[in-house]
UniProtKB/TrEMBL annotation:
Gene3D superfamilies: Spore Coat Polysaccharide Biosynthesis Protein SpsA, Chain A
Family, as annotated: Belongs to the glycosyltransferase 2 family.
Pfam families for this protein: Glycos_transf_2
InterPro entries: Glyco_trans_2-like (IPR001173), Glycosyltransferase_2 (IPR050256), Nucleotide-diphossugar_trans (IPR029044)
Record-annotated Glycosyltransferase 2-like domain positions: 34-156
Parts of the chain that traverse the membrane: none
Protein name as annotated: Glycosyltransferase involved in cell wall biosynthesis
Molecular function (Gene Ontology), one example: transferase activity
Domain of life of the source: Bacteria
Assigned keywords, A-Z: Transferase
Length: 273
């Protein structure tokens, strides 16, 4: 049994561990990886989702959105060690927050239940994290990525919203509204998620930048949903994303104003009130 240095939690020294988890012929890791899958009536798609997940994953957390089909039963048959948690609330943001709270791994990966994501790409996300990134962000438009499931209108909207975020928050994203991401668990303490719907991914992308976390984009290919129809509505959800951007921008201005008028900051500058 080989030993390895486990990446430390912030402010702590590295820990010497005597176990590792092989994830390829050239790479082994020590941090346990949790995969969160929000699902509602996705029984037909789950066999494709679970088939692509690597077997070295520490745990899979299925967040059940009150499914009326046999989503939970199918998932349990596909992954015997599955952890199932009932979703609080109704939106995707609610589902992800519920799932994150149930995770025990040091690394958390977000995967959709519609079969559009390739679980084989998880290794790229994990490699980025163990190499120093705090947040590994999937991108369909980075070199090597792609999508089979975006109309021209959605591509245009994603580009416009991404451009606004890059300019307003100093980010350098190539994709904004994509749900395939991974991060160290400690990031949750710094981004404080508080939204309910599809805009949760945008909120995460903005707040990791505002928190000064290290972000690395991972080229990812988005496939077509295999069965069923998406609940995503381009105009409705695009407007919700825009509201999140404007709210976060407003909060940032308010913080700057408070900082400028802070007595402590004035004292450091030698200003007299």
């Amino acid at each position: 049994m080989s030993s390895a240095l486990r990446p430390p939690s912030p402010g702590r020294e590295p820990l010497l561990v005597t176990h590792y988890r092989p994830i390829s012929s050239h790479l082994a890791i020590t941090p346990p990886v949790s995969v969160v899958i929000p699902a509602m009536n996705e029984a037909k798609n789950l066999p494709y989702v679970f088939k692509s997940l690597p077997d070295w994953i520490h745990e899979v957390v299925l967040v059940d959105g009150n499914s009326t089909d046999d989503t939970v039963e199918v998932a349990r048959s596909l992954w015997p060690r599955l952890k199932v948690v009932p979703q609080r609330g109704r939106g995707k943001g609610d589902a992800l927050i519920t799932g994150f709270e149930a995770c025990t791994g040091d690394i958390i990966v977000m995967v959709d239940a519609d079969g559009s994501a390739d679980g084989g790409e998880i290794v790229s996300y994990v490699c980025a994290l163990v190499s120093g990134a705090d947040f590994a962000k999937g991108s369909r438009f980075a070199n090597g990525g792609g999508t089979d499931d975006m109309t021209f209108v959605r591509k245009l909207g994603n580009w416009a919203l991404c451009t606004v975020v890059n300019r307003k928050f100093g980010a350098r994203y190539t994709d904004l509204c994509y749900g395939y991401n991974a991060f160290w668990r400690h990031c949750l303490d710094k981004i404080d998620l508080d939204c309910t719907g599809f805009e949760v991914e945008t909120l995460m992308n903005i707040r990791v930048v505002k928190a000064g976390l290290r972000v690395q984009e991972i080229p990812s290919h988005e496939y077509l949903r295999i069965h069923g129809t998406s609940n995503l509505r381009a105009v409705r959800d695009g407007l919700r994303v825009l509201r999140v951007i404007l709210r976060e921008r407003s909060n940032r201005r308010a913080l700057r104003r408070r900082m400028r008028h802070s007595p402590l900051l004035k004292a450091r500058r030698g200003e007299v009130s």
